[in-house]
Design goal:
heterodimer; A: mainly beta; 5-stranded antiparallel beta sheet; 11 strands; B: mainly beta; 7-stranded mixed beta sheet
Chain lengths: 107, 112
């Protein structure tokens, strides 16, 4: 079993929908990261969390340390949000990654 | 501000050769980390350097090595290349938790 599990693996939404991507982890962490990767490979770091909730524009990330769970929410989704979203955790002096969630937002 | 610069963008090497990849972090960022991304294994952490010292290392064989210079630029080296080393190699620089990580565009290495 992977130490970082994401769900769903694939997600298709209509423009304007509210989207949630989930991440569960099984190790002790110092921080959790949400990354966005567009076709072509470029990765953007969206959030770095150690507790609570962060918001940036239409994106919201939450983390529950006790339950070892984090969620990434996208409000009013747009086709430009189509990308792979990757959850990663900083643990034991390295970083472990989830397999990613491929999001497609249709106009 | 300038982002994280990785060179070269693309590289084709033959099995058994060695390769050196370069990463220039954002000015003022002293931490540089390296990652390998393959379709089969996804993203994996290689190592992290801070102030010219390797601070953390992932689970990769000794053929993978790196270093960091006094100007924070970093290089990673892979010796005796294998077909399975074909991957996208990404580096990221880090300042603090408020700014998080900034990734470069990556070097796509193909071993033939």
């Amino acid at each position: 079993k992977n130490e970082v599990e994401q769900s769903p693996q694939n997600l298709t939404a209509q423009e304007g929908e509210f989207i949630t991507i989930n991440c569960s982890y099984s190790v002790g962490i110092s921080a959790l990261h949400w990354l966005q990767q567009h076709p072509g490979g470029g990765i953007v770091s969206l959030f770095m969390l150690s507790s609570g909730k962060k918001k940036h524009g239409r994106l919201i990330a939450t983390i529950n340390i006790q339950e070892k769970h984090s969620s990434l929410h996208i409000t009013a989704s747009h086709p430009r949000d189509s990308a792979v979203y990757i959850c990663a955790v900083s643990a034991n002096n390295d970083m472990r990654f989830g397999a990613g969630t491929r999001l497609t937002v249709k106009p | 501000k300038a982002g994280v610069t990785q060179t070269p963008r693309y590289l084709i090497k033959t099995r058994g050769q060695q390769v050196t990849l370069s990463c220039s972090p954002i000015s003022g960022h002293r931490s540089v980390s390296w990652y390998q991304q393959t379709p089969g294994q996804g993203l994996q952490f290689l190592f992290e350097y801070f102030s010219e010292t390797q601070r953390n290392k992932g689970n990769f064989p000794g053929r993978f090595s790196g270093r960091q210079f006094s100007n924070s630029r970093s290089e990673m080296n892979v010796s005796t290349l294998e077909l399975g080393d074909s991957a996208l190699y990404l580096c990221a620089s880090y300042r603090d938790s408020d700014y998080g990580y900034t990734f470069g565009s990556g070097t796509r290495l193909t071993v033939v």
